């Protein structure tokens, strides 16, 4: 547990909260008023307010992307390998903003928050959200912070979709878009994985139609299964084979259906157990639906190049060879559309065995390219 922080760490950080009373109109036809967004910042905003970078998180992410909340925190923020002095998102140059999306369960208003109208948790009554809704709320946060234009919007996976939507929705407010391990829309297979995860939650007897908080329970079994299914897709076959193989927990098989016999079984159960204790089931449903709904090209009859015709940002697209959840082919779709639209784009396919989760890991080639691109951004 760190008592003295590494030299390239942003050190101690304190989450901040911004409250919004003006109703936010949502794609589903509803609006949300009196909500809050929790966020963290790293580095300093320069006098010209030209060095701000927005970090958009993935499905189970949150605002705590770098540094430590206290000296006893065992692990730093989820993207600490990329944020800090001298790192890819160099806090000596950039003012980095990382938030928890609306609908989240880490401080921003979401299903577990109290509905002022009823005095009870929103639960299943919380409105369905889209990536576009998140981007609009993020733009309002930028207004509050006095940031008229982002030097860059950066995200991996679902975060990469948000970065792309920023370039589409607010072309004058973003100079660079970095979309990492992402896709222009989900494949049928990805939607299917999300539906299996949702059904695991929805069919849990403790779900109570989404109002489980009123019953002082959580749909733990459903959340565990959802996380186990999801986690399998985040890793590659090679990564799982190298980490676990067919290793056993003990020297012999038990020949029953209830024992945890293989190392990989133990790992998945641990991941499910840990996740069910910190993540809200309704938020999981919301996040996976936002993934499913993302398809900006639908407004242009599926023509992604036409969709991107109005963007002004330069793009950096990064994929990973063993990512089968968001394969390199999906990143190349974005690159091809940008080229067809005559936009500036650079593309890197990183040879990495870790699968989809590679975007979270300190892979030297990845960090070198990430840093190289960010260092070329003029402020």
Could you characterize what this model shows?
The protein is an alpha/beta fold and about 375 residues long. Helix content is about 30%, strand content about 15%. The strands form four sheets. Strands 1-4-8-5-11-12-13-14 form an eight-stranded mixed sheet, with helices on both faces. The chain starts with 15 loop residues before the first strand and ends with a helix. InterPro entries: AB_hydrolase_1, AB_hydrolase_fold, HAT_MetX-like. GO terms for molecular function: homoserine O-acetyltransferase activity; homoserine O-succinyltransferase activity. Its EC number is 2.3.1.46. Homodimer.
Please tell me what the overall shape is: globular
DSSP strand tally? 14
Total of helices: 10
For the sheet with most strands, the description reads: 8 strands, mixed
Helix percentage: 25-40%
Succession of helices and strands:
EEEEEEEEEEHEHEHHHHHHEHEH
Low-confidence residue ranges: none
SS content category: alpha/beta
- Terminal CA distance reads 36 Å
Strand order of the largest sheet: 1-4-8-5-11-12-13-14
**What quaternary form is this?**
single chain
Whole-number mean pLDDT:
94
Q: Report the radius of gyration as a whole number of Å.
A: 21 Å
Strand content: 15-25%
């Amino acid at each position: 547990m760190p008592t003295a922080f590494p030299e390239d760490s942003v050190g101690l950080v304190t989450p901040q909260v911004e409250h919004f009373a003006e109703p936010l109109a949502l794609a589903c036809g509803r609006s949300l008023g009196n909500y809050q967004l929790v966020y963290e910042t790293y580095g300093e905003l320069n006098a010209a307010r030209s060095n701000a970078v927005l970090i958009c998180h993935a499905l189970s992410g949150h605002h705590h992307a770098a540094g430590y909340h206290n000296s006893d925190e065992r692990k730093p923020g989820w993207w600490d390998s990329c944020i800090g002095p001298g790192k890819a998102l160099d806090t000596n140059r950039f003012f980095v903003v990382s938030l928890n999306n609306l609908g989240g369960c880490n401080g921003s208003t979401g299903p577990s928050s109290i509905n002022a109208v009823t005095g009870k948790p929103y639960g299943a009554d919380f409105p369905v959200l889209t990536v576009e809704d998140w981007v609009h709320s993020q733009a309002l946060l930028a207004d509050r912070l006095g940031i008229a234009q982002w030097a860059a919007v950066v995200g991996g996976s679902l975060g990469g979709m948000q970065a792309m939507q920023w370039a589409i929705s607010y072309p004058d407010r973003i100079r660079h878009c970095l979309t990492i391990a992402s896709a222009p829309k989900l494949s049928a297979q990805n939607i299917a994985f999300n539906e299996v995860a949702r059904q695991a939650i929805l069919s849990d007897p403790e779900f109570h139609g989404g109002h489980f908080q009123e019953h002082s329970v959580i749909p733990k079994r459903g959340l565990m299964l959802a996380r186990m299914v999801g986690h399998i897709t985040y890793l590659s076959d090679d990564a799982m084979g190298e980490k676990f193989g067919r290793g056993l927990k003990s020297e012999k098989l038990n020949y029953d259906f209830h024992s945890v016999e293989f190392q990989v079984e133990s790992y998945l159960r641990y991941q499910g157990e840990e996740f069910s204790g910190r993540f809200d089931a309704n938020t999981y449903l919301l996040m996976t639906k936002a993934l499913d709904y993302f398809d900006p090209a639908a407004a242009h009859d599926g023509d992604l190049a036409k969709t991107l015709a109005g963007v002004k940002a330069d793009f950096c697209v990064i994929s990973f060879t063993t990512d089968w959840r968001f394969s390199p082919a999906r990143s190349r779709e974005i690159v091809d559309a940008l080229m067809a639209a005559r936009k500036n784009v650079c593309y890197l396919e990183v040879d990495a065995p870790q699968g989809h989760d590679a975007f979270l890991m300190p892979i030297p080639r990845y960090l070198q390219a990430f840093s190289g691109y960010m260092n070329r951004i003029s402020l």
